[in-house]
Design brief:
This protein has about 425 residues and is an all-alpha fold. The protein has helices spanning about 5-25, 35-40, 75-85, 90-105, 110-120, 125-135, 140-145, 155-180, 195-205, 210-225, 230-240, 245-260, 265-280, 285-300, 315-330, 335-350, 365-375, 380-405, 415-425, and strands at about 55, 65, 65-70. Bound molecules: N-hydroxyamidocarboxymethyldethia coenzyme *A. N-hydroxyamidocarboxymethyldethia coenzyme *A (HAX) binds next to loops.
Length: about 425
């Protein structure tokens, strides 16, 4: 048995007992209230979900298992996946064992390539990724074992199997989509000697003479891995998984949400906005020009992509990490310098718009600029990079949820008529 499963076999009964006893002792304690504004307002700040892999305090940003993400930026994504799942850092041996599992499982069914090649040439890469995931659903270990009468206690085990099977092939499929969709030539074979993100970078085929793009891929995969469970992608995935739909169905559901411009597509929109700005002003704009352009965007009824957040009220620490990488490796590039200048100007503009609760940049404000700098200029692909990383969080949450026997998600909705009566009471 591989070491990650061994570790979870020990941890899961402990978590189960702890949750059982918390529920028994404190089940009736109130932890949150819901106002009418929240019911109409996307349930902002309503505490009604449990997520132990990560949390996002508005004044701190992403903490993975309690650790600020800035302290994890030197880790490999597969180390972070272990950490998300177990709350412990893997030893060298454990990491090697997990990497071995990922390499061993990296076999993309050949029908995936046939289906992807048959898709319209102008399909969005996220539609291609999702199609690939959905058509592989028949490979689900969970589904197969469920049909054979698997016991509830084993759900997490079958979910972990699906998780590793999908994680192992996601970079190969995503890189394949990149090469196909943008006519980059033949697909590049995986190199089993490389770590997960380095192999992804290798299969994309971006020239990387000094290894900086590989470093960026590792960082990118770590930063986007998880963001607690109330965001659109994580929540959609876990809702679907709570119906015991397997991880192929669940991940697909989550990624369909990630493909929205208010969520994961913002990175594509953001670079588009930066490039338009550079084009309009024929180079890196001045602060004055940027300020005017930001107002022009807002006055035309559009959002400034990459700025604002449903939860955060500070600069996203993931943005800080990307900005720091850019300052170290990409200073002097027009796109990166524009992104930095936007950061100097836009928060003050957004602060003047009263309704905007968070004027600060989120992770999407800078990531595209670095990808562009290294030659990955097809920005409609950016959300696919995000998706490959986010799969880790979705999977870690699902394994924990199945391990701790979380029930099907089913909150109560009310009608506007009900609200009108209720508020008069
Ligand atoms: N530009 C213009 N207007 C903005 C804005 C921005 N960057 N951020 C918020 N607003 C507006 C909202 O559209 C909303 O307007 P209406 O009341 O007219 O609908 C108002 O300010 C209040 O919004 P909020 O409470 O501050 O923010 P929300 O929780 O409603 O929305 C969003 C959070 C991230 C969706 C929002 O800030 C936004 O649209 N930002 C730009 C898109 C973006 O960067 N998305 C990526 C977020 C990170 C992420 O999930 N990545 O995957």
């Amino acid at each position: 048995m591989y070491k990650l499963k061994e570790k979870l076999q020990k941890l899961i009964p402990v978590w189960r007992d702890e949750i059982k006893s918390i529920q028994k002792e404190y089940g009736e304690k109130v932890i949150s209230q819901v106002t009418v504004a929240q019911a109409y307002g996307g349930m902002r700040a309503v505490k009604s979900l449990i997520c132990d892999t990560s949390e996002v305090p508005p004044d701190k940003g992403l903490l993975i298992r309690g650790v600020p993400v800035k302290d994890l930026t030197d880790k490999l994504p597969e180390e972070v996946f272990w950490f998300l799942l177990t709350g412990e850092h893997p030893t060298k041996d454990e990491l090697k064992d997990l990497q071995g599992e990922l390499v061993r499982r990296n076999n993309v069914p050949v029908y995936v390539w046939y289906v992807l090649r048959a898709m319209p040439a102008d399909s969005h890469p996220m539609a291609m990724l999702n199609t690939a995931i959905l058509i592989m659903q028949k490979e689900s270990v969970f589904q197969k074992r469920y049909d054979e009468g698997m016991k509830k206690d084993e759900y997490w085990d079958a979910t972990l199997e699906d998780a590793l099977n999908i994680l192992a092939i996601l970079p190969t499929i995503a890189a394949g989509i990149y090469r196909m969709r943008y006519y980059k030539g033949a697909l590049i074979q995986s190199d089993p000697k490389l770590d997960w993100a380095a192999d992804y970078a290798h299969m994309l085929g971006i020239a990387d003479p000094n290894g900086e793009f590989t470093k960026l891929m590792r960082l990118y995969m770590v930063l986007h891995s998880d963001h607690e469970s109330g965001n659109v992608s994580a929540m959609s995935a876990s809702t679907v998984n709570s119906a015991l739909s397997d991880l192929y169905f669940s991940l697909s559901a989550g990624l369909n949400g990630l493909a929205g411009p208010l969520h994961g597509l913002a990175n594509q929109e953001c670079l588009k906005w930066i490039l338009e700005t550079i084009k309009k002003f024929d180079g890196v704009p001045t602060e004055r020009q940027l300020k005017d352009y930001a107002w022009e965007t807002l006055n035309s009824g559009q959002v400034i992509p990459g700025y604002g957040h449903a939860v955060l009220r500070i600069t996203d620490p993931r943005f800080d990490a990307i900005l720091a990488f850019g300052k170290k490796y990409c200073a002097g590039s027009d796109v990166f310098d524009t992104v930095s200048r936007v950061f100097d100007v836009v928060p003050d503009v957004l602060k003047e718009v009263q309704k905007i609760k968070d004027p600060w940049p989120n992770v999407d404000a800078a990531s595209g600029a670095l990808l562009y700098h290294y030659g990955l200029s097809e920005f409609s692909f950016y959300t696919v990079l995000f998706a490959v990383s986010r799969a880790m969080g979705v999977f870690a949450q699902a394994v924990m949820n199945r391990g701790t026997n979380m029930p099907i998600i089913r909150p109560k909705s009310v009608t506007t008529e009900w609200i009108k009566k209720e508020v008069k009471k």
